[in-house]
């Protein structure tokens, strides 16, 4: 980063110079002066950064950096006056500038040596005199009124005060007390920001310059705090003032509402930036007690809440490109608070998991609020939407904390927070003007059972030996209620409505997906609670079998309810085979499942889908007489390549080669023929998969010994 900071200005200067002037224009004395000045200035600014650790790691002494700083600073000071002349800068003080540059450069050098206090005091007086000379030559006779009714003479006075304060602060930083130094830093910050704001409001001060000065001043204050020259709170307050000024300037440039911000909003923004800098920047190296850290984080979140109106409304309007609602501002508030809590935990409490989870809860809550847009009103719809958000928050809290551990408590919690997702699903799947009350009740009941299953899976370590029994009962109840919902849909459906378009199928699919996914997660994380071997009483566990049944059922329903047709439907079915990774070793149907081959069902099922789809999409079923032969040849090629997949299944599932190697070798060219005689994209995809599988088998699994070398 330091190297880029050093080389970027000179690189841009050369690039722009070559582009604007050409190569011959670059080889010019004035351009060379500009390049050397920029390089020296960049090196000087880089040496002011905290690079001691980097320099020492490289193997150099830090004294070299100090010498380079002095050399580059001196050269930049010497070249500054020619640069002003080259750029055509005019000023009433321009004739005094060379002498002033020399005085300031020598004064800055003398401040590095505390023993030369008298000499530095002399140059301090000279610098103050030069400031007075500059002030005398200002056009005091001009009249102009700025914001707040401030006259031009008042602005001149503030600028003079800022100049003198800067010199006094520089002198006291080496030869004064910390109390006086701190007081004058605060005064200089107030005066400087006031001058900047007034000049910027009158379009006499550019916004990029305001940004640069804010960043430079903040970095300087941070370095003073690191060097223990400023207290933490004081440095934080001054930095917050500069950052707040920069943020307001940016808002004025890029938004229209910023100029109408009341002073209370500016104060709340300052308070937010103050807390963020204090907690996330200046207090990082300090060991803070948890109680104090909790207070600071709470104040930081309160400051975010105080900035909801109008700052977060403005932010929401520019993020979502529409007028932000109260829900948008509330959601952004939750997200920012959650991210701040997570950042605080990472910096101060890296091992504190619960605090990070609390921050994640805040982020998730914010996203939910933005998505659901709850109407905060005393209407039926508003109360229901707020209940949805509260239910989801409670679900997350229950799943990621130990607040609920016993199964009866899980059932009670499921009844309280599980009904709203089911009602929302019913309102979404059924027409708004015709939602059967029976199905509404059934959807809510299934939702409560699924939430109960989720809670039980997340609390499996607390439920002990009764875990499997309770989960099986919940799963049976889910299946029963889903079948009842399907029966009600079949009875009440319209004649023209397709059977597979009934909403209950989607409910059944969602239930199977949740159960099979949760079962797989619990088995992979806490397998001791769902034993994959026979128990002491020779009773085989049934929960892995239930997980496998729901996994296979989920795959079939995903294929049946596919949203696309043609090749996209085949791709959907192949992608749906990913759910088969939830299969488990259940001691009844699947015995050979291991960590090494758990992806085999997914791979072979995708191949089977391609084979069946290629046969079904062949022209054989609707071809005319002259394409019948080609269609038969296509079907023959598809079926002829199936031994390749049989060998592939044996290698992936059983780690054995089930057919002789020449079978795969001599069937490989059939895939090329499929590319020529195939009549669908699916057939061509199958040919590519078959060729890739054959090449993989020959290159990694077969020895391929020449026939002449075989014994």
UniProtKB/TrEMBL annotation:
Membrane-spanning parts: 27-48, 60-81, 93-111, 118-136, 148-172, 179-199, 205-222, 234-255, 261-281, 293-320, 326-346, 358-376, 382-400, 407-430, 436-458, 470-492, 504-523, 543-561, 628-649, 656-678
Domain of life of the organism encoding this protein: Eukaryota
Keywords for the protein's UniProt record, in alphabetical order: Membrane, Transmembrane, Transmembrane helix
Keyword Membrane in annotation: yes
Keyword Disulfide bond annotated: no
The protein's name: Uncharacterized protein
